[in-house]
Design a protein that fits this description.
Belongs to the pseudouridine synthase RsuA family. The chain is α+β, with helices and mostly antiparallel strands. The protein contains 3 helices and 10 strands. The chain has a domain of 103 residues: 2-Layer Sandwich (Alpha-Beta Plaits), CATH 3.30.70. Strands 2, 4, 7, 8, 9 and 10 form a 6-stranded mixed β-sheet that branches. A two-stranded antiparallel sheet has the order 1-3. Strands 5-6 form a two-stranded antiparallel sheet. A hairpin with a 2-residue loop joins strand 9 and strand 10.
């Protein structure tokens, strides 16, 4: 699902959700079409600006399934920051939290990720407070572990928890 209300080709958008959103509601950040997970929507511009301000250091945590058995060394590299390319320019990512983890209990992905019987996969939790375009995918690739599945688990204290794809939960007065 695209993180927008306007149509773009045949992709599902936020407008397809079964919820009567006020006209002035917008997403706080974005998820690309290949990613899934928590997306906050708000009509509180102060709240949105505060969460998106890079100086505020709001952590976003992603559960990342990668190709291969990720090592402690690769996690240490991710935590220290790695060089990635953004629009053809080198970018050193800020320090992050990167920890190997057991496979989380998540809903099945639709469509499913590619499956190769002879290639192991593993999971890590990656928390960062900057949000460059496709940053997590670029970071895991930079340490030799391409991302297969990317799920945003949390933004600061807001967590995906047991929510299911397409589920909307209204929270008032939290900004």
């Amino acid at each position: 699902m695209l993180s927008q209300f306007s149509r773009e080709g045949d992709h599902p958008t936020l407008a397809d959700l079964d919820f009567d959103f006020p006209k002035d509601v917008y997403p706080v950040g974005r998820l690309d079409a290949d990613s899934e997970g928590l997306l906050l929507l708000t009509n509180d511009n102060f709240f949105k600006t505060r969460l998106l301000d890079p100086k505020q250091r709001h952590f976003r945590t992603y559960y990342v399934q990668v190709e291969g058995e990720i090592t402690d060394q690769a996690c240490a590299q991710l935590a220290a920051g790695v060089n990635i390319s953004i629009n053809g320019k080198k970018h050193q990512t800020l320090p992050a939290r990167a920890v190997r983890m057991e496979e989380p209990h998540l809903p099945e992905r639709n469509p499913p990720i590619r499956f190769r019987k002879n290639i192991l996969t593993s999971w890590l939790s990656l928390s960062l407070h900057e949000g460059k375009n496709r940053q997590v995918r670029r970071m895991t690739a930079a340490v030799g572990y391409p991302t297969l599945r990317l799920v945003r688990w949390s933004i600061d204290d807001w967590e995906l928890g047991s929510m299911q794809p397409g589920e909307v939960r209204e929270v008032k007065g939290q900004g």
